[in-house]
């Protein structure tokens, strides 16, 4: 729960979650739902996520918000998730008996989450809104491309009919 200060005297508040029982790969999918979003939008995304780890990520995000409010007197309405990263923590190694006296290795991985929250200024608001608009436009263009793909024309030359009516 340490803060950093950038060159422009902008406070960045950090919250860390250690030893969460989920693999870093699965946790990173959930963190992708909140990266770069406004804090309110990020909380909504986590609440309505079906993944089990989203509850733990929500606790860490709320911890970062309360750190920003109580320790640094930042405005909650202007906060956004600057960075959400995941790393490896400990690994429990277990073995399962296999055929012919062998053993199969089972790795139960844990992850470590770090969420950075920062107050938005006008420049970052414009930048984030442009990024969201670009993402929406890309998704819309992909949907229209999928629905409006031209069907290949039927060539009569490809289908040869013999005199008795069979196709080759």
Number of helices: 4
List segments where confidence is low: pLDDT < 50 over at least 5 consecutive residues. none
Q: What is the fold named in CATH at topology level of the domain at 3-95 and 105-127? A: Ribosomal Protein L22, Chain A
Mean pLDDT: 84
DSSP strand count: 4
What overall form do the CA principal axes indicate? flat
CATH superfamily of the domain at 3-95 and 105-127: Ribosomal protein L22/L17
> How much β-strand is present in the residues?
25-35%
Question: Pairing-aware structural class of the strands and helices?
Answer: alpha+beta
Tell me the distance between the termini. 73 Å
Give the neighbour order of strands across the main sheet: 1-2-4-3
Series of H and E elements: EEHHHEEH
- Second-tier CATH architecture of the domain at 3-95 and 105-127: Alpha-Beta Complex
Radius of gyration: 26 Å
**Assembly state here?**
single chain
Helix content: 25-40%
Q: What is the class of the domain at 3-95 and 105-127 in the CATH system?
A: Alpha Beta
Largest sheet: 4 strands, antiparallel
Could you describe the 3D structure shown?
- By secondary structure, this protein is α+β, with helices and mostly antiparallel strands.
- It has a domain of 116 residues: Ribosomal Protein L22, Chain A, CATH 3.90.470.10.
- The chain contains 4 helices and 4 strands.
- A hairpin with a 5-residue loop joins strand 1 and strand 2.
- The longest helix is centred in the C-terminal third of the chain and has 26 residues.
- The chain starts with a strand and ends in a 21-residue tail after the last helix.
- The model has no long low-confidence stretch (mean pLDDT 84).
